[in-house]
Amino acid sequence: MESVYIKEVILHLINVSLKVPFTTSFGTMQTKEVCLVEVIDSSGISGWGETVTSNEPYYNEETTYTAVYILKNFLIPKVIHKEIKHPKEILSMLNFVKRNRMAKAALETAIWDVFAKKNKKPLYELIGGENLEIKVGKSIGIQESPEKLVEKVEQFVKEGFRKIKIKIAPGKDIEYVDAVRNKFPNIPLMADANSAYTLKDIEQLKKLDKYNLMMIEQPLAHDDIIDHAQLQKELQTPICLDESIHSYEDARKAIELGSCRIINIKIGRVGGLYESVRIHDLCKQHNIPVWCGGMLETGIGRAHNIHMTTLSNFTIPGDTAPSSHYWTEDIVKPEITMENGIIKIPNRPGIGYEVARDQIEKVLVYSEKINSSYSPHPIP
Ligand code: OSB
Ligand code: MG
Hints:
By secondary structure, this protein is an alpha/beta fold. The chain folds into two domains: about 130 residues, Enolase-like, N-terminal domain (Enolase-like, domain 1), CATH 3.30.390; about 230 residues, TIM Barrel (Alpha-Beta Barrel). It has twelve helices and 16 strands. The strands form four sheets. Strands 6-7-8-9-10-11-12 form a seven-stranded parallel sheet. Strands 1, 2, 3, 4 and 16 form a five-stranded antiparallel sheet that branches. It has a two-stranded antiparallel ribbon with strand order 5-14. Strand 7, helix 6 and strand 8 form a beta-alpha-beta unit. Helix 1 packs across helix 3, helix 5 packs across helix 6 and helix 9 packs parallel to helix 10. Magnesium ion binds next to loops.
């Protein structure tokens, strides 16, 4: 394999609007600032990643602007003008910065893309992916009423989605799940609480057991794995962890404690593709199925997600709906499309989608070129 040598990084900060606002237990998202990270190798090849951060620190502690700050002042200075033999080295190079995993992942995934392109291989091949046709699920935000939700579910089931995920919150749970299950007794269905409950709600959560849900995602606190273990003992429905798993070590501990039976892997949340692969492998050894979570990504992050989903233990459809479900015009060409609930992984080098610079131009807030290792802070 040929190594890469990054001579320049360009941060493209864009502001994009979702076609439909997305509501979770922690708030509603409509527009989103995204920092696209373009790394340019000495041979002139570009690789791309994106911060999957939101404008506000409501899902986790990062925001797009904190990610930009950390990237510019700490992460990029550490990797620029150095020979990188393999992208799996990157996360450990960036270890000197605590957490800030979404910022790290944006840079790390861009380096995977440029490395794959330089070596003329599709990304999935470099990580050992196998399934080139992946099953797709749809995540639906909290709706005004159970009836509205049922309408949406009907539409997405007709479009062919292989799993339906609905968001729940206290006061918007049993009634909503009940309405969907009544209308669709057999669809693969799950609920995501985004940390909205505590152990005091155990009786309410137990009421979900009769709906044959595939899982309940992150019912308890964003940083908890202890209470989840207790809850899992009392629930029949499998618990899936999202927010609580930031690393291989978190996954190991959660599995050991019995805090979950399923894990949602988000490349951004865990600091990159290599950490994602390690978590995938660990889960496989322990018979814990995984699936790919989503953060309302543009085509760049989405492309990374679908390549990751080719790994063999991604047996549950992920939140990887096609571009047209989020954006009027995506920033990659061709857009990511789905047929009959399946996305076919492109067999082209790197992420396999072209970045549409003219489209970026239309939504650009500013861009910044970084081509020296200068940082106002001493980098260890
Ligand atoms: O918890 O999975 C989540 C979106 C933003 C923040 C958190 C979550 C989500 C989703 C959307 O569920 C999934 C998607 O990208 O379609
Ligand atoms: Mg979630």
